[in-house]
Amino acid sequence: MANNIHSSSASTVEQDPSAKKPGGWRAIKYILGNETFEKLASMSLISNITVYLQTNYNLGGVLLVNIVTIWSGSSNITSLLGAFVSDAYLGRFRTLLVGSIASLLGMLIMTLTAGIHQLRPSSCSDPPNCPQPQGWQFCVLFAALTLLSIGAGGIRPCNIAFGADQFDTTTEKGRAQLESFFNWWYFSFTVALVVVLTGVVYIQTNVSWVLGFAIPTACLAFSITLFLLGRRCYIYIKPAGSVFSDMAKVVVAACRKRCFSVEPGCEHNYYDPPLMIKLKRTNRFKCLDRAALITEPSHELQEQGTPKNGWRLCSLQQVEQLKCLIAILPVCVSGIACFISMDQQNTFGILQAIQMNKSVGPHFKMPPAWMNITSMLALSLWILIYERLYIPVATKIAGKVKRLTLQQRIKTGIVMSILCMLVAGSVEKRRRELALKHDSFVSPMSLLILLPQYALSGLTEAFAAVAIMEFFTNQMPESMRTVAGAAFFLSLSVASYVSSLVINIIHRVTKRTGNSPWLGGHDLNKNRLDYYYYIIAGLGAVNFVYFSFFASHFVVNTTVAETG
């Protein structure tokens, strides 16, 4: 568990001399504006890619779900590469800019796939015997998705960290502003997405995929322009080298000295060079302290007192950085289990909506991807209630600032994820029964019945995802905030990969042991998706026990930073 340490970043901040008062909410408005329009571009694709690949590429079943989940996972795992490049070479501002440009190129290619019919297979006239994409057509599609993943890798770990850089966490006011920033960061772009995505998704589904992709492409170009307009308002943190290589060195050095004791009572001589900013030493994970243990000064240190081999002797600062990362892993595991349920709504949830009655009134048919708006509305509504109603009322009653603890919010999020899967399973069971009863591919049940499971998915994100992101950022020093962002999106990535793995295992096992597989194929009526949802709910219940009795002990509400 992390200790409460005071922070100072003055020596690492490079400010534009022409800017009078960089940072603060003055800079945040540009960062949030960039994030809003970038999310508009990416989410307009994420929300509707399942429909696009099914209707334009004739994909379905496990292949479709695997493409979407693996792409989603890859978009998150590239955050590690983005964090490394940001910390070691480019800094957060330049990494954000490069990522935005890569995303723009990816969206341009996706627009071309919609506009040039030769880039896609011919239309399907005889389901389920539809023509499949050729190899080179897959290559064009994957090139676009790859560029979008690279762009996400530059944007996702840096946007939150770059925003957090704009506040002075040495003051109570700065820490309060930072906490509100996490909520408003989610709230601002979510509201914009709810307003705009209704139109964009409708255009994609009912008017034109070309126009539907061109609009978010233009929004992405505008977000880059907006981001550059605020360049004189930002606080810039110089890249100080990546901590990832330092962490690897600590592990190797500690393993080399595994025979040496670091128990209390033994005399130790550690390599601890004077630094202007350093982490306070902790007593957790003592075995890693061996990496900084000087056992043979003549062989390990040069005349200037620096290590001869960084893979044999590390500083206590490097050791503490690795400890910070290890300390968040138990919560990271719990987050992964929680995020798996959120993943289902962009794939199987949309497939459910496709096979339901989409009529709302006599003349309007709702696009399946609009169901995602319910999640965003639920998230935004809770954040608005929490920030504008709960906190002021609770503070007035308690006589001091009163917020829900991180443990309370994460536990609530896990409960919401379980309820989401239970509701989804019940709805799917009824949807399938009605479809089979009427011998119809499309169930007569209205897709509006899906609203509760999407709302619960949004509340899962509002409680668990926001709290976990806040915890990761607070438990890392300022020099490692990009790593915190990468760790958060890595959790989302692993959740996507685990979800894909579970889907493939269930598909293969049930295909061998049953009359028909629970998952797979173009027709959900021939599957048992409800059983799959119940399995994910069971994993959520296990996660609740795991977090309550183990991972929650690693969650603290204090901020880890550096001492000068």
From TrEMBL:
Subcellular location: Membrane
Gene Ontology cellular-component terms listed: membrane
InterPro entries: MFS_trans_sf (IPR036259), POT_fam (IPR000109)
Membrane topology of this protein: Multi-pass membrane protein
Regions that span the bilayer: 62-84, 96-115, 135-155, 184-203, 209-229, 369-389, 410-427, 447-472, 484-506, 531-556
Signal sequence interval, chain numbering: none
Superkingdom classification of source: Eukaryota
Predominant place of localization: membrane
Keywords: Membrane, Transmembrane, Transmembrane helix
A Pfam family matched in the record: PTR2
Keyword Transmembrane: yes
Keyword match Nuclease: no
Protein known as: Major facilitator superfamily (MFS) profile domain-containing protein
